[in-house]
Structure formats: structure tokens, C-alpha cells
Amino acid sequence: MGGVKCGSIGLASNFSFYYAHHMSTIEGGVICTNDERFYQQCRLYRSHGMVRELTDESLKRSYAEQYPDLRPEFLFAVPGYNMRSTELNAVLGLSQLKRLDANNARRVENFELFVRNLDPEKYFTDFALEGAVNYAFVVLLRQPSEEKFKALTELLRAENVEFRRGTAGGGNMARQPFVRQRMPGFDPATLKNADMIHFYGLYTGNYPSLEREKILGLCEVLNTL
């Protein structure tokens, strides 16, 4: 957007390095921010809330002065977690950074090939592709049909194509218990686009080493529906 990367907009951004994502450390991820106070808080929360993890020496002293009865090396300021990455995770991540741009370019090519060969009469293909790097192929029925969607999932299973219902997260998150408990009385069905994805969409993997022939074969299978 205007030459600015999405991850640099706002207070902070977070990136998952799960196995199937754009780059992987098997598990884990990063938080990006240019806000010093937020950065220090993140350091606390990732490591049991221990003040010794702070890099701001004045903030360290402030905590130590507030709690003189506690040892600074074991002073827990917040109820944090143990989310520090391991050396092995770091090695994997750093090695993948070297080929991230090339891998992303392949994913873009793959997705464009997929969309060009998918039947637009049957599936949604009007994706905003500029600046996007998709780690999955989105398969969304053009028109809602429970019968066709059932046939679609059966077809993919018969062809041994792995997929997940909805998109990342499964579709309409307002239908999930953790949201419903906090929004009593809200009708998830009012989120019509999210519901469309929830009930009539799925996705399957897009990875850099995916062969062109397999993408075209997948489109051929989908277009038979």
C-alpha cells in the first residue's frame, strides 16, 4: 500500500511461522513494532514476565526499586508465558529468509495459474491479487448450494486432495463459542460474506515446489463438478 509493507502499519503486526506458512520454523512466529514500550512488554510476556528479559535498563531499575524485597533476576512483572524460540527454530527461519522472495514469487505464479484455469461460472475467481502472496488455493462456490458443496468435498477426497473447510480459521468466526460467549444476542448469520465462506468454501495448499501439472490437474478435477 503506497510502497509500505503491511507489516509496518499500525502499532504492531504478527507473523506465524507454522509449518505450512510462507516460511517456517516449524512452530512460532514474530511480532513487529516500532513502539519501544510495546516492544518491552512483548519481551516480558514471551518469557514468564521476568523483568530480567527487558533491554530497557531504566525500566529494569524502576521495577527493582518498586519491589526491593524481590531479587531482580526473579522479578515477575506480568503473568507471562514461555514463548522464547529455540536455536533450532532460529536456524531454520534464518535459512529460509534467503529464499523467501523467490518462494513468494512462485506462490504468486501458482495462484495466478490456478485462478486462470478455474471455471468462473462455478467458482469465485475475482480475487484482488496485487501485492498478495497466497499460501493456499481458495475454492469458493460462485452460488450457495449445499448439494454442490457436498459433491465438491466428496470429489476432492476421492482424488486424495487434502483440504480444509472455510479459510484460515474455518470461516465465520462469530459462530465459534469463544465469540458467542462474548457477544450474546449477536446473530452470526448477519455476516453474509463470512457465512458464504464458512458453508461453501475451502482451501488446499499452495507451496513453492508445487508442479504446474498438478495445479492444472486440480483445476480440471474441480471444473468437472
Identify the notable features of this structure and list them briefly:
single chain; Aspartate Aminotransferase, domain 2; Aspartate Aminotransferase, domain 1; three-stranded antiparallel beta sheet; 8 helices
Structural summary, described in words:
The chain has 225 residues and is an alpha+beta fold. It contains eight helices and five strands, in the order E-E-H-H-H-H-E-H-E-H-H-E-H. It has two domains: 92 residues, Aspartate Aminotransferase, domain 2 (3-Layer(aba) Sandwich); 123 residues, Aspartate Aminotransferase, domain 1 (Alpha-Beta Complex). The strands form two sheets. A three-stranded antiparallel beta sheet has the order 3-5-4. Helix 4 packs parallel to helix 8.
Question: What name goes with the CATH superfamily of the largest domain?
Answer: Aspartate Aminotransferase, domain 1
Largest sheet: 3 strands, antiparallel
Structural class: alpha+beta
Q: How many β strands by DSSP? A: 5
CATH class of the largest domain: Alpha Beta
Mean pLDDT: 93
- Catalogue the unreliable spans: none
Strand content: 5-15%
**Do you know the CATH architecture of the largest domain?**
Alpha-Beta Complex
Give the overall silhouette: elongated
- Total separate domains: 2
Distance between the termini: 37 Å
Q: Give the H and E element order.
A: EEHHHHEHEHHEH
Q: What count of helical segments does DSSP give?
A: 8
- Biggest sheet: strands side by side, in what order? 3-5-4
User: Percent helix among the residues?
Assistant: 25-40%
CATH topology of the largest domain: Aspartate Aminotransferase, domain 1
Radius of gyration: 23 Å
